[in-house]
Write a structure and sequence with these properties.
alpha+beta, 5-stranded mixed β-sheet, 13 helices, 20% helix
Length: 681
């Protein structure tokens, strides 16, 4: 290419390695099984290993872990008022050969943020890095540091050690380069098993315009190479910038989307039915006919009806787990204080789908599902139904009306992700007279709750029927779920938020959509599994942040048993939970006490199991819970901020939101003064 296309070295942006290497064994003899995942970064030969970027959606985050040297430039660096600074790098970062040097800032939790990447020539004298900051960062204090690794050159090929190709394997990789310009990426396979008829055969040859922000996700079927053994050779040619190879890996081919591929990528309609416990729904076997319309829909149209498990017994942490596929102990959004928000190293399902061309829209009922906790991230439109509700002024009809209108709008731009959220069955229980008559219920809270469920079933059916009639759901998966249940004294409490027994965490998890047969799953699937499932159906690359597991194969009744436990905790951290198979452990930190239940023998958790097998299960599952929290925090670079918010932060909430929380029973005048919510829903 012409030299005019070259980009100055100090503008080079090279994202660094993130994550923990995963080595995988290859398929051996025996019955057919799912092929293993082999990351090419783990089998690269020679010094070129550092050119392989090990990350998924985190490619764009700019976090650095795999370096050859590091020096702290300033311990207490303050962002200047100009929001720009020139940092002269010391001689210690200059080597005898060319280097790629990254200048980063680190906050109080020692979370690094990439500020500038530049190429430094061998023996250079005092190179300068120009740092740009956002206006709201002026005056902030950070640690300023530099990290470096050797510059291996732009066009040198990268070769792996020989690997064996299992049947049903694909190669997935993201492609980009450090500066905007024309480039050619090539991936070839070089047989080493003695059966080669020639040299390396091209698997991929792609010439186009690339840049650091516009990643190209590529998938190549390796089925023609099944049973062969050989090396992969990765080449890049460009005068514009260095190659960015995004986590190339050999993986099992995904199950084809159940939606018709000819119709394009499927859309997703998520309906959050706040506070709805599964065992109060007749579609899940409850004796009172609370959900007759949903039951009829199941008989006529099929669908996937799972044993859903919430990761918390309150609104904010459960929803954020669904959005991020991380546990509350990782994302830290617990809903206890006014200014909690999702840590920026973490990303959300709407952000990921928006990057892949999805239109995104949401309608919520304010309260704990709003902007202040980070729920707006990734949504093109986010409407909060913000009437100043009182106990006598339920808003659910308005919410469903607004949701129907917003759904019609976003459905004009498929594929789309749409979220509707309602507190319809939340206290105070004020069912309409029609629902009370239909069920013949009395005045107790428990019976009036059932009537609220009947009313919600009717509104939900109207929403779905209208959308179907308008042709909005022809290539759309509908996911119905709840964030937590409600207690009516089963274990000594009323309401929710403080315990993790089945009445609080056993929730509906229903998927309706094109081509789905009627499937009832006894496996425990958590809300943490929803995002990986939707990305699987959208034929998106694996999301490295996700700690859940896709149940997309189970939608057609051919899924495997869940391979990992389901975890949870209360917002107040007074209880933690782990569930696997028939065993469920509830650890009460206030006791402290650990209760293990055999749900097959005791589904109502009436008495703890004191058997040796039960005690062993409790010990193992609680250890697994702690390990899962520690591993994810470390791998994703997050430290949840659980410091108490000030009263000034509480007062920064608008009057409408506080009135909403008061109507739901979370806030009284004392709470507003102290800066915390009553239950943290």
């Amino acid at each position: 290419m012409a030299s005019s296309n070259r980009i100055r070295a100090d503008r080079l942006v090279v994202l660094a390695l993130v994550g923990t290497a995963v080595a995988a064994a290859l398929v051996s003899s025996g019955p057919p099984r799912r092929p293993p995942r082999v990351r090419l970064a783990d089998v690269v030969e020679g010094p070129h290993r550092s050119q392989i970027l090990r990350a998924g959606e985190e490619w764009r985050r700019g976090l650095t872990t795999d370096v050859q040297g590091e020096v702290v430039l300033q311990t207490h660096y303050e962002v200047p008022s100009e929001a720009r600074d020139e940092i002269r790098l010391p001689a210690s970062v200059v080597g005898a050969s060319p280097r790629v040097v990254e200048v980063l800032t680190a906050d109080g939790f020692d979370r690094p943020r990439l500020r500038r990447t530049l190429e430094v020539a061998a023996g250079a004298s005092a190179p300068v890095a120009t740092l740009d900051f956002a206006s709201d960062e002026v005056g902030q204090r950070h640690r300023l540091l530099a990290r470096w690794r050797e510059d291996l050159g732009r066009d040198a090929p990268i070769r792996t050690r020989p690997v064996e190709i299992a049947s049903g394997t694909v190669l997935r990789v993201g492609l980009a380069q450090s500066a905007v310009g024309e480039a050619e990426f090539r991936i070839a396979f070089e047989p080493t098993d003695g059966g080669a008829t020639g040299g390396a055969a091209d698997l991929l040859r792609l010439r186009d315009r690339f840049g650091p922000e516009a990643w190209r996700d590529v998938e190549v079927s390796l089925e023609p190479l099944a049973g062969r053994r050989g090396r992969f050779v990765l080449r890049h040619q460009s005068d514009a910038g260095a190659p960015l190879w995004g986590d190339p890996a050999l993986e099992a081919a995904r199950a084809p989307s159940l939606a018709d591929p000819a119709a394009g990528r499927p859309s997703f309609l998520l309906v959050s039915l706040d506070t709805l416990r599964a065992d109060r729904m007749s579609v899940f076997g409850y004796g009172r006919e609370t959900t007759p319309r949903l039951a009829e829909r199941r008989r006529e149209a099929g669908g996937f009806y799972a044993r859903g498990v919430a990761p918390a017994s309150s609104t904010a942490p459960s929803h954020m787990t669904l959005f991020t596929s991380t546990l509350p102990c990782v994302h830290g959004v617990l809903g206890l204080f006014a200014e909690e928000s999702l840590p920026h190293p973490l990303r959300t399902l709407p952000e990921i789908l928006a990057e892949r061309g999805y239109a995104t829209s949401a309608v919520t009922e304010n309260g704990y599902m709003g902007h202040s906790f980070g729920f707006t991230r990734g949504f093109d439109r986010f409407r909060e139904v913000r009437r100043e509700e009182s106990a006598e002024d339920p808003v659910v009809e308005t919410t469903f009306s607004v949701a129907a209108e917003a759904l019609r709008a976003v459905a004009r731009h498929p594929p789309f992700l749409f979220l509707a959220h309602t507190y319809a069955v939340h206290a105070p229980y004020l069912p309409p007279a029609e629902a009370v008559r239909a069920l013949g219920v009395g005045e107790s809270d428990s019976e009036r709750y059932d009537a609220e469920v009947w009313h919600l079933d009717r509104l939900l059916d109207e929403l779905l029927s209208d959308a179907e009639a308008a042709g909005l759901l022809e290539n759309t998966y509908v996911v119905l779920f709840s964030d937590h249940g409600e207690e009516f004294g089963e274990h000594g409490r009323i309401g929710h938020g403080f315990q993790l027994f089945e009445e609080s965490v056993r929730v509906p998890l229903i998927v309706l959509g094109p081509g789905l047969p009627a499937v009832a799953s006894d496996e425990a699937w958590g809300l943490i599994d929803v995002a990986p499932t939707l990305l699987d159906l959208a034929r998106a690359p694996a999301w490295r942040q996700a700690r859940g597991r896709s149940f997309a194969p189970s939608l057609a009744g051919r899924g495997e048993a869940r391979a990992q436990p389901v975890f949870g905790e209360t917002a107040h951290q007074n209880q933690r939970m782990a569930l696997e198979g028939r065993w469920k452990v509830v650890h009460d930190a206030e006791g402290p006490a650990t209760h293990v239940f055999d749900l097959d023998a005791d589904p109502g958790e009436a008495a703890a199991d004191d058997s040796e097998e039960g005690r062993a299960a409790a010990k193992r599952l609680l250890a697994a819970y702690r390990a899962a929290c520690v591993e994810a925090r470390s791998a994703l670079g997050v430290t949840p901020d659980r410091s108490k918010a000030s009263s000034a932060q509480w007062e920064s909430w608008d009057r409408s939101r506080i009135e909403k929380l008061r109507a739901l029973g979370y806030v009284d005048d004392g709470d507003a003064q102290s800066g915390s919510a009553a239950q943290g829903s």
